[in-house]
Specification:
Length: 380
């Protein structure tokens, strides 16, 4: 049972390497969620130009939202008047990176690999957004929305409320009437920072969302180190173009969040697969899955879907090849970047225990807690 021992050793090393950075990233993400109002995200993305694409990309980079969790947020942004390009760039940049993922990437691969991942993610997202604005402009649907929305602005007497609007005019007219409703940024401005709410979002909402994919990501990452035959690893190493295609075929339909993809990529690199192939998985895996693909087609159309998939696949492979080229000319061994062979201190071990405690709690919670859903709908 030597392979079982190797598996659990790899699992422990992965957990110890990632846990401190994931926990720190969760805390930061919770604080960020409390400090940044949602209206700031929506009101800057309405224009059909490069500036809105850049803003949506920058907004999306630090947000710790997975490829499925970003769907309702992107839908809300689109309905609020964001262009197709802004929505698509936000859909790509948000799930690829996040504060927790950036910290975990640094913990495993170092700052150079982390910086490369963040910058290339921004480039891929911006290219997709710009191409969408050029080749798939909002036509009849959006123009009619704008035309129908324009007269409703004149019915709102205070100009301050025009920065955040809903196309439902009667609700907007009730703003500031003392009925207890909130409009524009008034609710956000009156909201006070709550550390308790920030931690609840971080360790209940956010960690609850990623617990399952993180669990499987850790297991798969540890399994890869013992399951990939030596000849297959050597084949993927010798024929990098083949490794790119294999990784793309696995990553595009697969659901894996940015953080959970890290142990899988680390396992690939430790097994001899090139850093470029591992990078392709880190880019294409979190950005796409079957659910998001269907939503993009329905929300933005077939042409935007092709741009979405094409930008991610081609961009990931090009930057993966670029990373391999840099490693080749610099004579860098990809496995040397993975920091998991060191002796871990008390903080790493405690962080790993805390992380696994939360992950296992969320995994087994549905089996021990009776459902309180009523009326056919549930809220967690």
């Amino acid at each position: 049972m030597e392979w079982l021992e190797v598996f659990f050793t790899g699992l422990i090393d992965l957990s110890n390497a990632m846990a401190p950075y994931i926990l720190f990233g969760l805390v930061f993400a919770g604080i960020l969620h409390e400090l940044v109002p949602d209206t700031i995200v929506t009101k800057h993305l309405g224009k059909d130009n490069v500036s809105s694409v850049l803003k949506s990309t920058v907004f999306g980079i630090p947000l710790p939202v997975c490829s499925c969790g970003v769907i309702p947020l992107a839908t809300s942004i689109k309905k609020s008047g964001a262009s197709k390009g802004s929505t698509l760039s936000f859909l790509i940049s948000t799930p690829i990176t996040g504060v927790d993922s950036i910290m975990a990437t640094y913990g495993i691969f170092g700052w150079i690999f982390t910086l490369y991942r963040v910058v290339t993610s921004m480039i891929i997202a911006m290219v997709a957004g710009i191409l969408t604005n050029i080749f798939d402009k909002d036509s009849s649907a959006s123009s009619s929305t704008v035309k129908s929305a324009t007269p409703s602005f004149s019915t709102v007497s205070p100009p301050k409320t025009a920065t955040s609007f809903s196309l439902n005019t009667p609700q907007e007219e009730s703003c500031g009437t003392g009925t207890g409703s909130c409009c524009g940024s008034s609710c956000e401005e009156s909201k006070k920072f709550s550390f308790t709410a920030a931690m609840k979002y971080a360790f209940v909402t956010l960690l609850g969302d990623i617990a399952k994919p993180l669990f499987w990501g850790l297991l798969v990452g540890a399994l890869i180190t013992v399951a990939i035959p030596d000849n297959l690893a050597q084949l993927l190493k010798d024929y990098s173009w083949l490794s790119y295609l294999v990784v793309i075929a696995i990553a595009v339909p697969m659901y894996v969040c940015a953080t959970a993809s890290l142990p899988i990529a680390a396992g690939l690199m430790l097994s001899g697969v090139s850093a470029g192939a591992a990078f392709v998985f880190l880019s294409a895996g979190p950005a796409t899955n079957t659910v998001t693909i269907g939503v993009v087609k329905k929300m933005l159309g077939t042409r935007s879907l092709y741009i979405y998939l094409g930008s991610i696949i081609i961009g990931s492979m090009l930057f993966g090849m670029g990373l391999d080229y840099i490693f080749d000319i610099s004579n860098i061994n990809p496995s040397s970047l993975v920091h998991m062979d060191e002796d871990f201190g008390l903080i790493s071990i405690l962080s790993s225990l805390i992380l696994w405690g939360f992950v296992l709690y969320f995994l087994f919670k549905p089996y021990f807690k009776k459902s309180e859903c009523s009326g056919g709908s549930c809220c967690s």
